[in-house]
Amino acid sequence: MRHGKTINHLGRTASHRHALLSNMASSLILHKRITTTVAKAKELRKYVEPLLTKAKDDTTHSRRTVFSYLQNKESVKTLFSEVAEKIANRPGGYTRIIKLGTRPGDNADICIIELVDYNETLLKAKPGATKGRTRRGRRTTKGTATTPAAEEANAETKSKDNAPENKE
Questions:
Q1: Which site from 19, 34, 140, 147 is most exposed, i.e. has the minimal number of CB atoms within 10 Å?
Q2: 24: number of Cβ within 10 Å
Q3: Residue 94 gets which letter from DSSP?
Q4: Bias category Basic residues: which stretches (predicted)?
Q5: Spatial distance between the Cα atoms of 9 and 102, rounded to a whole number of angstroms
Q6: CB neighbour list of residue 21: distance below 8 Å, 6 or more residues apart
Q7: Residue 121: what pLDDT?
């Protein structure tokens, strides 16, 4: 049983694990997206999200605290200048893990971990792309058709229903 075992040691000593997570966090901040194993990505998420939260408050104390974790001046500068202003309104959940499958060499689960506010393809497709859609059906809202031809047919039916009938 794994009672109370909250840390995935990743098969490394404590110092090696801290160095690994520090380097991965710096790379994530600088490149906005990295490819790694799922186990490392889940540990990196726990490591980097508190740092991103601390970066919202740009003070000397928070900069020094973040630098003690990252040990990289460039990533700290990037984090506090450009990343912090993009995540300022977000209450949490700054990273996204997208699973890619398995690695050919050792069959390890591979994923992409990225900063949520920097995926331009998803941000462009987001407004109105799946508005009103559900997994249950093809209709956008109950009672309305989705295709233009169906909408025209629906409009013709309504106009026939509302038109006065000529009885002779």
A1: 147
A2: 19
A3: -
A4: 132-141
A5: 21
A6: 43, 44, 47
A7: 80
Residue 139 CB coordination number (10 Å): 13
- HSE (side-chain half, CA atoms, 13 Å) at 141: 3
The structure tokens listed for 57 are: 């408050």
| Residue whose token pair is 């726990």 | 46
Per-residue confidence (pLDDT) for residue 44, from 0 to 100: 97
pLDDT in tens, 37-89: 999 999 999 999 999 999 999 999 999 999 999 999 999 999 999 999 999 99
* Cα(88)–Cα(77) distance, integer angstroms: 16
pTM of the model: 0.72
Two tokens, residue 73: 């001046």
Given a contact cutoff of 8 angstroms between Cβ atoms, the answer to whether 58 and 84 are in contact is: yes
Strand partners, 25: none
Please give the full DSSP string across 123-139, using - where no structure is assigned: HHH-TTTTTT--SS-S-
Tens of pLDDT along 98-150? Answer: 999 999 999 999 999 999 999 888 777 766 555 556 677 665 555 554 555 55
Q: Where are the alpha helices (DSSP H) in 6-145?
A: 14-31, 38-55, 60-70, 73-78, 84-86, 120-125
Give, for 109, the enclosing helix (H) or strand (E).
strand 109-115
The per-residue pLDDT for 120 is 80
